[in-house]
Amino acid sequence: MGTIYIVLAVLAFLIIFTSFVTVQQGTIGVTTIFGKYNRVLFPGLNFKIPLIEKVFKRISIQNRSVELEFQAITVDQANVYFKAMLLYSVWNQEEETIKNVAFKFMDERSFMQALVRTIEGSIRGFVAIKKQSEVLGLRRDITEHVKEQIDKTLEDWGYHLQDLQMNDITFDDAIMKSMAQVVASNNLKAAAENEGQALLITKTKAAEADGNAIKIAAEAERQAAQLRGMGVALFREEVAKGMTMAAKEMQQANLDTSVILFSMWTEAIKHFAENSKGNVIFLDGSSEGMEHTMTQMMGMNKLMEQKNTK
Q: Which membrane topology describes this protein (predicted)?
């Protein structure tokens, strides 16, 4: 009898011990009774029916990621190679969602295969209607297209696509080389245009500077000519004043004013001789020429006297 009690006690302990199950944080347990879905167990310590209720699966509700590598062909028959990072999670913690996650696929491997192939098919269908030159600028468009296309399908499976990042988009080596050549030629073109603009600006500024210099020189020449003219006019005015004063003094001394003209004539000849610097000056040195010159100078003197008288 003692042995039976011990066995019964051990069995009772085992039954009680197996009646409790712990579910880790970030996961949800799914139980079955005789192979049929029963209920959901949330994180923490849970009680289950001993012996007949079993934990069928533990489902992670945390975000999960997977890397994808696949190939697509554009409408102009260019091969495009993608490397992407897929971030997904269970849609929510509702019972129907958890049941879909637990029972839609036989195992995790089957689910991942279906998920990856669905996303690859969506991206390939999108790329197939685009040209090779457009693909590099469509990272965001590809992501939005994939999410729009497969969100409903993933929801039926109990999952939600959080993010799809296109980490790398490449082409065949020949296409990559041609792209590099196009970029290099565009850079050379831009550099040539910039150099031409810089040269044009330099030439324009130089022309403006030359024009300003010419304007300044012309203005300076104009002012110099004006000053020279004013100097000549003042000189003539002073000469006329000097001649008038000398003529008055000669008249007061009862001397012939023609002496002044003769003196001016001889001084002019002396000045020509001293400052000619090798130039040849022809003067009429005959008595007739001198008489003719004196007559002209005396006529000018009379005119000046008449003006002073008035």
A: Single-pass membrane protein
Domain count, the chain: 4
Is the pLDDT at 310 greater than 60, yes or no? no
pLDDT tens, 90-107? Answer: 988 888 888 888 888 888
Specify which residues 80 forms β-bridges with. Answer: 72, 171
What is the pLDDT, as a whole number, of residue 205? 84
Cα(242)–Cα(233) distance, rounded to whole angstroms? 14
For residues 68 and 122, is the Cβ–Cβ distance under 8 A?
no
d(CA 147, CA 169): 19
Which of 35, 60, 85 is the endpoint of a domain? 60
Q: What is the pTM of this model?
A: 0.52
In one-letter notation, the amino acid at residue 154 is: L
The tokens for 31 are: 């139980």
What is the CATH classification number for the domain harbouring 77? 3.30.479.30
Q: Which residue has the tokens 């965001």?
A: 140
State the chain's maximal CA–CA distance in angstroms.
187
Residue with tokens 């196009």: 182
pLDDT digits (tens, 9 = 90+) for 75-86: 888 888 888 888
Residue 85 · residue 165 · CB < 8 Å: yes
Query: Does one domain contain both 197 and 261?
Result: no
If one compares 222 and 5, the residue with the highest pLDDT of the two is 222
Q: In angstroms, rounded to a whole number, what is the distance separating the alpha carbons of residues 66 and 117?
A: 13
Domain range spanning residue 237? 177-253
Structure confidence by residue, pLDDT tens digits, 212-245: 888 888 888 888 878 877 877 776 677 667 767 7
User: Looking at 171, 188, 222, which one is the last position of a domain?
Assistant: 171
Q: What is the DSSP letter of 130?
A: S
Q: Match 């085992």 to its residue by tokens.
A: 14
Query: What is the DSSP code (8-state) at residue 106?
Result: S
